[in-house]
Amino acid sequence: MMQVSKTSVIVKSVVSLLFALIWVFPVVWLVLSSFKPGSELFTFPLTLFPKDFSLSGYISTFSRYNVFRATYNTAFITFFATVITLIMSCMCGFALAKYHYKWLSVFFMCMLATTMLPTEVIMSPSFTVILNLGLYNSLWGAIIPTVGTMTGVFLMRQFFISIPDELLEAARIDGANEGRSFVQIMVPLCRSQIAILAIFSFRWRWNDYVWPLLALTNPDKYTLQLQLRTLSGAEAVDWSALLSFSVLTMIPVLIIFIIFNRQIMSSEVSSGVKG
Amino acid sequence: MSRKKKNPLDRNQGWALLFCAPNIIFFIIFFLWPAVIGLYYSFTNYDGWRNMDFIGLQNYINLFHDSQFYSVFWNTVLYVVVSVPLGMIVSLFLALLLNDEKIKGNSITRVLVYWPTLLSTIMVGVTWKWIFGESFGVANYVLTSMGLPSVGWFSTPAAAFWTTIIATVWSGCGVNMLIYLGGIKQIPVDLYEAATIDGANAWQRFRSITLPSLKPVTFMILLTSTINAFKVFAMVQTLTNGGPGTATTYMIQYIYQTGFTRNRHGYASAASMILFVVLLIISFVQTRMNAKQEEA
Question: Does some domain include residue A119?
Fold first, then answer.
């Protein structure tokens, strides 16, 4: 039995609370600031809560920037990239877990290597590839390159390894071919894992910056992140609009997190890699 | 167990290939192809438009004489060497602190520490840029109201460097903390009980039980955080824009600017290849070290 003294419980609780406050403060400060009128943003003394609650930042954001268009573009990219990622990762993860050929393990090693040479390192040639494939300035240019994610494959592979081989053997004896046993037996088994990968993929693509940056130039095609970057990179930053815009971009991720926080946090432990 | 059955497996080889085909194709198009093009570019003076003459090793020779490249490279190394260990220490500390279920509020703290990892890199940059704003930010407001001098967060190189470190640690700790928590949960409780009976104090228990048990987890976190730190781009670009001067311009931003702003794609690709080799060496060394420790 581990004996925990009362003082140590109190000290630990206080430290824990302190860290919680430190970690939550930056975002809370940003969100509360977004409800301050422009004049109050820069007048000292600063207050945590807006003295004069105002939506003027949000109104100017909506009137000056095409928030709906950017949201639509981002949602389009996120949706299709996620669907394709799920299908591909499921198939490839299954093959890597259940078949044992030399070339498969070689391919798996190659996939692992992609984590060492991320797209960020080779942006110029990646841009050339997008250009040559005719994906430049198309939303698909921010979708197609991202779907072969190593992390997705890895997540699914780990899951399929945990499913006993006997299930597959039994289906084979019953005369089902591999495609059928995959679709009818394996996929239904991994529904919860697919849901986890869907949540991950949603977040990666919603927050993605590098591929949209390379593929999209027309402001019409901008995603929320590109728009956010344009706003924050301006010579004279319009903080009032920037704050409210950034709050808007994180709402969907926040909602997903509130609903699924248990699943997200426990799956993070098992995956440990980012896509 | 039944892996050795020959005939059905051979027939299944086609299926395996079919299942992997999309990923293999995408791997070739969006990883292998760019990597090869990048290597080729690095031997040319490609400007993204007309010129693409083969110039041999000239880009590499120039890079080794380029003082700006050196300063960017060492800035990046310094950033990695400070942010990765610091992030790991904070994550481990938080994991140890928040492991105790008996302490109320721990689960909420876990959620709150984890939450920033879900923000986009640009959001992280915006959040801290708003806090460290020199004339309007809350950081300087707090400092001055405590009677301290305000800090030029983005105009002094050292301060700007620390803003990038703080933002990195803040946004990355959550995941590593969770991985450490998972590792701590797997340490058998009787180990601690036996040690306590033998008279080991808390520090000794930590040194000789917790730390060694967490070695594999630590290795994994070290590798992923090092690569992630070298990859840093949008967050710092948003936060400091690489300034003042090039004090916080790290490799990826340098490569991006050299390629896309100054149209020196060949030169940028040479820098990419150097970064790639560095990442490769780091992964190799870390993997080897881990393998050796496991043998010992």
Answer: yes
Measure the CA–CA gap between B36 and B43, rounded to whole angstroms: 11
Q: Quick one: which of B222, B208, B249 has its CA closest to B79?
A: B249
Of A26, A118, A182, the CB nearest to B231: A118
Whether chain A has a CB inside 8 Å of the CB on B281: the answer is: no
A261 contacts A78 by C-beta, under 8 angstroms = no
Per-domain residue ranges for chain B?
Answer: 1-41, 59-295
Q: Which has more confidence, B12 or B97?
A: B97
What range does the domain containing A253 cover? 69-271
How distant is the Cα of A95 from the closest Cα of chain B, in angstroms? 5
Contact B63, B200 (CB under 8 A): no
**pLDDT greater than 50 at residue A15:** yes
ipTM of the complex: 0.89
Number of domains in chain A: 1
Element (H, E) at B94: helix B67-98
A96 occurs within a structural domain? yes
Q: Which CATH architecture has domain B59-295?
A: Orthogonal Bundle (1.10)
Interface of A with B in 48-87 (CB under 8 A): none
In a domain, A4, yes or no: no
Asked if residue B157 lies in contact with residue B244, where contact means CB atoms within 8 angstroms, the answer is: yes
* CATH code, A109: 1.10.3720.10
Give pLDDT tens digits for B176-195: 999 999 888 888 888 888 88
